Amino acid sequence: MSALKVFSILLLCCVAYSVCYDYKTALTDSLLFYEAQRSGKLPSDQRVTWRKDSALNDKGNSGEDLTGGYYDAGDFVKFGFPMAYTITVLSWGVIDYADIYTSTGNLEYARKAIKWGTDYFLKAHVSENEFYGQVGEGSSDHSYWGRPEDMTMARPAYKITTSAPGSDLAGETAAALAAASIVFKTANSSYSATLLTHAKQLFNFANTYRGIYSQSISDASSFYSSSSYADELVWAAVWLYKATQDSSYLTKAESLYQEGNLQYSNGGFDWDTKTSGVEILMSDISSNTIHKTKAKSYLDYMVNNQQKTPKGLLYIDQWGTLRHATNVAFLLLQAVKLGIGDSTYTTMAKSQVDYALGSTGFSYVIGYGSSYPTHAQHRSSSCPDAPATCDWNTYNGQQANAHVLYGGMVGGPDSNDGYTDVRSDYVHNEVACDYNAAYQGALAALIKLGVS
């Protein structure tokens, strides 16, 4: 497309929508958010400099090094299940829009964001059928308000094994490592091969020793309870096929799809449910037309029938409304790329991302625009620099968070577009790693389409 045509599209868009959104800045800022969520010893090129080294004593039950990875949300637990989903979806976006990440100057930052997660997963996979799926205990972590650098509470580690299995956790981590192996295939071939080896082992572990991880790691059940492992097994097999081009993985994905009765699912896509993500990927690689049919059925429902707020936000669940809406936006744009759906998909996807960025007059992405959340429930950004005190008095104070958490997307409004920027509202005003994953992919897709 010529520069003149791109300019014309941008101009028409600005006229039609009264405002243009800088998706490139939003994409860049989203990667900054992930840097702010890093646990462990921070690298010399860390750009979010108000964060320092933290949780350097995270260890497994036999002293294994479990430093690194990402803090989940506004807290400091490292929940493996949503973290793995985050890395899978971030990788998906980088794989499909590597040219956009390159042209915006973000490819290396994106690779580093993914590697920060996968390096941790490699540490956590301590033997072929043993994987640490959580570090930190939810209630004790949540009873602390302060900087991660100052934590003193015990941080127990929890694992899945053959006698305490977690097919969903192992499967999602296998998917993450397989997807990331594609990201690094040319950039770092030896690292890519290592990721793929661990992905294959974790898939075998997941498929051989069946069980729901949150029944084995009981502390996770209060925070990220899994509903099923059937979708993660298919999801992992699909990503292994994409990474290896070994047809046995595609055959296994198709058989697991039938075994898990995914053909009867109504769809969905988030940290717990991968079904509609599976349908999109399978639409591209499988000869079975059911996948395109199921993908289109789900997305048509989202566009035409799903509840929406008065101002047009898809309202799927009260907790993290924007996360769910932008997850759908990403799938809509992926479907368009595959020739599923039409311009209504693009219009709906854009409207959801634009809602996050401020189409109602308020941006739900911290640091973007002139009006955005300043009291997000996020411990580390709420705290002033050390040695100043940061505790529950800080939490209860009316002052804005001490640091701008650039790129973090908060949960979002209620079903009537209502929202109050208060630190206590963890349902609507907390951030989380999984919130940004598909949102970031949708940003890249919109940039690729040349709209703003």
Automatic annotation (TrEMBL):
Taxonomic source organism: Sipyloidea sipylus (Madagascan stick insect)
Domain Glycoside hydrolase family: from-to ranges: 23-443
Reactions catalysed, as given in the entry: Endohydrolysis of (1->4)-beta-D-glucosidic linkages in cellulose, lichenin and cereal beta-D-glucans
This protein's record includes keyword Hydrolase: yes
EC number of this enzyme: 3.2.1.4
Gene Ontology process terms (BP): cellulose catabolic process
SUPFAM superfamilies assigned: Six-hairpin glycosidases
Protein name (record): Endoglucanase
Active site (UniProt): D421, E430
Single Gene Ontology MF annotation: cellulase activity
Keywords, sorted A to Z: Carbohydrate metabolism, Cellulose degradation, Glycosidase, Hydrolase, Polysaccharide degradation, Signal
Signal among keywords: yes
Signal peptide: 1-18
Protein family according to the UniProt entry: Belongs to the glycosyl hydrolase 9 (cellulase E) family.
Domain of life: Eukaryota
Gene that encodes it: gh9-1
